[in-house]
Structure formats: C-alpha cells, structure tokens
Here is the input.
Amino acid sequence: MNEELQETEPAASAVNPASLSTHVGEMLWPEALKVEADTLSNEYGHFAVEALEPGFGLTIGHMLRRTLLSSIRGSAVFAVQIEGVAHEFTQLPGILEDVVQIILNIKNLDIQQFEDDIIELELIGEGPCILRGEDISTFNKAEILNPDCEIAHLEENATLSMTLYVRMNKGYVTAEENQSRELPVNVIYLDSNHSPIKRVNYKIFTQTIDEQEQDQLDMEVWTSGAVNPIDSVAYAAKIMKEHMEVFINFDPEKRIEPDEDLDVEEAPTNDNLYRSVSELELSVRSINCLQNAKIETIADLVQKTEAEMLRTKNFGRKSLNEIKTILSAMNLSLGMKLENFDPDANPVEKAKKE
Here is the structure.
C-alpha cells in the first residue's frame, strides 16, 4: 500500500435524497430477472435482464461470469488411497486403466456433499465389472450427481478398493495446496476443480426504446447440479454486492428517484407462509419426510437450505425439485430468512375471529 494512504473507516456522509438524485440523476434501472422456464433445470439456466444503461450490460455480464467461475464453492475429490498402490504410476493387475487414468476418471465425478468437513467415500469392486460413480458408497454424506461416470474396467478376479477424500473449496486447487496432515501418509493428493459451474456464456443486445438506447444482458449458465443456475447467479451477485459496499459511505438501502415520495411501506408478508405443509400438492413420501423432520408450516420449510433438506432421512433430489417448483409458484424459495415473520399473526385466522 502507498505509504501516504492510511487504512481508516470511511467517514459517514450525510447524503440527503436531493443530493443523491442530483449527482446520480435519472438512469435506466434493471427490471426483474427473466428466466426461460421451458429449459430451466438443475444443470442449465437461460436468463435475461433488460433496461440497462449502455455499457452496463458488458460490465455486469463480465463481473457475473468471472465471479460464477471463480468464487462459487463446491465439492471435489482432493486425495485418494488405493489398496496396494504407493504412487500414481502403478499398474494394477486385471484392470484396464492404470492409476493415472483412474485418477483422471475420478476427477470427472460431480459431487454434492452435505457437510463442510472432509468426508470419506469408498469404492470397492470385484471383476468382471465396470465401476461407475453409482458404485461409490457415500454413507449419506454426499450424492454422486453423475452416477454413470466410468472409473475403471475390471477383468475377472480383479479387485479394486479405494477411499476417496472429498471436501468443499472454491476454484482450482493444486495437489500441493491440497496436502493435509489429517490424512494417512500413503494417500495420493490430486489437483482439484471445486467449481460447480461448468460454463457461463453471455451476450449483450443493444436496442432503442422510446428513442433511448439500452442494453439487454442475455446469460446462460451450466452447472453440475450441486447448485442450480438461479441460485448460483444469486450467490455471485451477492459476492459482487459485498465487495462494492466498501465504496458506499451512505445508507444504500433505498434507491432515490427524482421527485420520489420518501415514505416507504413495509412489504406485505406472503400469506402462504402460514399454511401447513400438508396442504401442498406433494407426494405422500415427501409429506411424510417433512413431518418426520418436524417441518409443519411453509414458513418452517422455506427457512431450510437445500443441503439441510437433502440430509433429511429418505428425502431425495426428486422430492427437493418437487418442493422447489411448488414454492416458486408462490414466489417463495428455500433458504429464506424470515427476520420479521410472526407465526402467530396468521391473517386468515384473524379474519375468521373477526
């Protein structure tokens, strides 16, 4: 840092609405994020944001893409322990692949783990067979998202036994950086790519509406399925927002428009939050899972994260997707924070009493 610069808290600024609107002026503000519903899945999303000032489409698109690819955390195998193998250049009898190729195949696994600590998975097989991702024992600590991923081809009487060490991280991590004193001495450390984001494309379209030029940002996001595209874009935007707030020296909670009335009414609570989960059009299996987990109302449900739901006994990804679809139709989602929610202030019950 330049010696003339000192690290200090930015001075609070008494920015008033008139001053803010004077210096910011009238601008185009982005409208709601548009989603292509027909193609939306856990692995792919196509989004569009329009009514952007000229140049903002490129700025936002580039920042989102870089943040998505570099900063969203995910799971990956970072070390393996193979029975009878001391290093990666070993050839195992009766197995088509050598250890180097087996490791390359392991790196292709897409994994979602349900806890932040290092977890151990096992792969044990006896030939003749093809060992795939679906043959990995996860012990309910993780889910293999691409179970068809081939790992090794075993001939008759050939055996393979290995332990896979998995953890959360972000971006690309070298084998040297992955080395941990917590693991046995005879493990093979791998370089690992932890990003659940497979690919991000964006395009900028310029259009003129009412004689005013504006940008439209068109973005496509591919993921491993460990995080869905909508949530991944939200996480990236949150990271960008946190980094930009250090430059703001006034309360940024409200955007001031010229001649705007400053009185703000509190947003109404979604009445669906008070409903029982038994009222949802879910399968009997899903309802039983929720009730066994003591999730009684939709308010209880939306405050759970995807990872928490997947840790629920007998609750799988099919049930998760079913719930997310229903919540989306109510303008709700998993992982919400209901800070001012009063479970006793049910408007329907109040109306009945009155």
